[in-house]
Structures are given as structure tokens and as C-alpha cells.
Amino acid sequence: MNPAALFLKEEDRRKLCLLEDKKELNAKELESPQTPLASLNAFLKAQSFKHQLSEWGTPHGSFSKLLPSLIAASLQKEVLWLSDQQDSLIYPQAWRELHFDLNQIYFLREKRVLRSLRTLIREESFSFIMIDSHHFFSKSDLHFLSQSARSQRMTLFLFRPYFLSAKKGNPFCRLRLNSSYELSSQKFHLSFIKGGERKRHFKASFGEVFSG
Prior knowledge:
33% of the residues lie in helices and 24% in strands. With 212 residues, the protein is of the alpha/beta class.
């Protein structure tokens, strides 16, 4: 199972077939992956995502969510993936290959993500939630999430289905990043829009990421 196949839509299946047909993935690395965070950690420079709301631009399907998912796995806590996307399939083996304990990750699909979030936060059900949503979040929504993360020591990753821009800011997130996968170069890209070192850019292939 390819570790990129966290969620697969039809477009992602076609991309995955192209990658495998070209034999760009090293089968041995994927069968026995090393902890895939050495080069990524070097780029992040121990940037802390804990106990705050961070915003991620992830415009290209499941591949773009791979790098933030690796960061989530490194935090080694119970994680809830909350999604409003009804047409995605979940592949547990792919999550296992990212070093997730399948007893520690939960998946929930809800059409009304924000209402579910408010309930989960009120009940303190999870300390780490990844929010995969096409829903519009108002300033009051973002303020609520940011304040809740700080006051209740929660870690919230908010995935947006487009590239984030520094021209359109978000004062409620200290960290904003763009994460993507470029099929033509077969490289992952990660860059800070806010926080960290804004001009720094991480670029790596599948093999480079999973060999550390």
C-alpha cells in the first residue's frame, strides 16, 4: 500500500497509477519505511504546532495532506480526522505505514463540521483534531477554534482546499502553511505563509521523505 493513499478519490487513483507505472517509488523503502521525519523536522526546526490552531493550504487531494499527517503522527496522541467530504475512502494500511497506531486515530464524517467541532470541543473528546473541510469558516468561527485550542490545550489542524495567500491573512492562526504534491516533478512542497521562516521552502520526493 502506498503511504500517500490516506484518502483516495478517482483523480488521486489516476495519479497513483501514473506514479507506480513510472516506478518512481522505491518499493523497499515503502515496505519497511524509516521514521519519515528527519528532513521534515530539519525544515520545521522544531516548530511547535501543539495547543494552537494552524491553517494548511492543501489544494491537490490526499497527496497534499501527507506531510501534515506525518507531523500529526509524530505527536503520538489520539487523533480525530473530521471531514465533510463524503466521496473519499479511507485506507487503514496507509495510515499504519505512516506510523499511526490504528487504535489511536479515529475518522468521522459530518456534513455540518462546525457544529460537530463545537460539540467535540465542549465535551473535550479529543486533544488533537484534523479538520478536513470545504466549509466556510467566519472570523468568529476561527476565533472560537483558536481560543479553544489555547484554553483547552488542543491541537487543531485546519485543512483548506486551496493555496493560502499572505495577502488574505488569518490573525487567529500563528502558523499558516501550504502543502502540495506536484505530479510533473513528483515532489512534495511545504512552505510557511505565516510563522516559521516565511521564505523557506521544503521540497522532497517520496523516497527522500520516507528515507529521512
